[in-house]
Amino acid sequence: MRTVIKGGTVVTASDTYTADVLIDDEQIAAIGQNLAGDMTIDANGMYVIPGGIDVHTHLDMPFGGTTSSDNFFTGHQAAAFGGTTTHIDFAIQGKGMSLKETLDAWHGRARGKAVIDYGFHIAITDLNEAVMEELPYCIDYGTTSVKLFMAYKGALMVDDETLFRAMQQAAKHGFLICVHAENGDAIDVLIRQALEAGHTEPKYHALTRPPELEAEATYRAIRLSEVAGSPLYVVHLTNAGALEAVQLARGRGAPIYAETCVQYFFFTKDDLDRPGFEGAKWVCSPPYREVSDQQALWKGVADNSLQVISTDHCPFWYEGGIDGRPAGKELGKGNFAKIPNGCPGIEDRMKVLYTAGVRGGKFSINRWVELCCTNPARLFGMYPKKGVIAPGSDADIVIWNPEATATISAATQHMTTDYNLYEGMEVVGLPQMVFSRGRLLVDGDTWKGEAGSGVFVHRKPFKV
């Protein structure tokens, strides 16, 4: 069936214009005037944008004795209601597992549940010689990005030798290294010292992970990548010092890219000091910083020092372990180091950034599309299949109502958790209809998607 989205304002990373968009099966067949099809959707007064792409999520992820609370159906449903039609999740290698075994395990998590399209980064935690030799095959697996952790000592962290050798492989074979940049050795010392002093409250999660240790690790990872000759993507950058390291490297012409996450624009470390145990809701890594860092991030996304805004969606119950729920944030009562790290956000990213970013005058609507749709597709090997409204591209399309309003609340969200960081926030601008490869997933407040209809995106090798 051929569907025409008629009379809307098409918005891409570079252009804004009025046109009809013709969908034929799973792809965009044409863009023009007076197009005809079997079904017509009136988009007058609406924006027609590419589906959002969130390249940093953790669905159904084991962590700290529990599992993140959204799976590949509930997380996808929430994403679609927020205007996101593709995401890249982290397939985390277990001890002794090959990369192929790791990916097979995560494909199993998605099988029969996926509704939007998805890809995987491989998060390597055990880079032995066999795995080092397997790294070039990531290209064949369609998973052309690899993440290494410079934090979480004793669990996920790798040393500099391992990181550097992986970068050398990336430079040789055309995949992208992603890093979680914090100095895990120093953080481990600070955590032990805090606990020994009897400091157990959630706020100490932030106080034991100071911004200087993120800045140092970011600078170190960049310099290692320059020596190795590999591109580098810094995930969830939070503060002015780390941003400065990226800016200096990009000024040298180095292929260094970085994302921040939407929540870092809105919260500070003071949120972890809310009364009682409430601050545990805001525990994620790296932690929230200062208002001055928020200002630096807004400037960074406006001037292209930062290329992507993701979510690091990793939800846990605030009150878990009841009514069939897996354990949640309560695991850290009496010991901040045991609070599951992560926050929900996949449903809120596009509307919060449209409200605060576009309507708030922080950046243009084209930059919004670039940060949330086009740049993620370009950097992670999905463009022009995804991330753009163009003939031949997948019909991942959001009809965006710029004047629709809503109040964000855990009571009405689709994410599987019992709180929302943005509780009570008024947003202006919402998805009206959401299509994934031409399939209507969301129509206003109505769910139209079917479990199992999302597919794995076999991504192309990294290209600057």
The radius of gyration over CA amounts to 21 Å
Fraction in helix: 25-40%
Average pLDDT reading: 97
* SS content category: alpha/beta
Euclidean distance between termini CA atoms = 37 Å
If you had to describe this structure to a student in words, what would you say it looks like?
By secondary structure, the chain is an alpha/beta fold. It has a domain at 52-367: TIM Barrel (Alpha-Beta Barrel). It is 28% helix and 24% strand. The chain is built from 12 helices and 19 strands. The chain has helices spanning 74-81, 99-110, 129-134, 138-141, 160-173, 184-196, 203-207, 211-228, 240-251, 291-302, 349-358, 365-379, and strands at 2-11, 16-24, 27-32, 39-42, 47-50, 52-57, 62-63, 66-67, 84-92, 117-124, 145-149, 176-180, 232-234, 256-261, 308-310, 397-407, 426-436, 439-443, 446-447. β9 (84-92), α2 and β10 form a beta-alpha-beta unit. α5 (160-173) packs across α8 (211-228) and α8 (211-228) runs parallel beside α9.
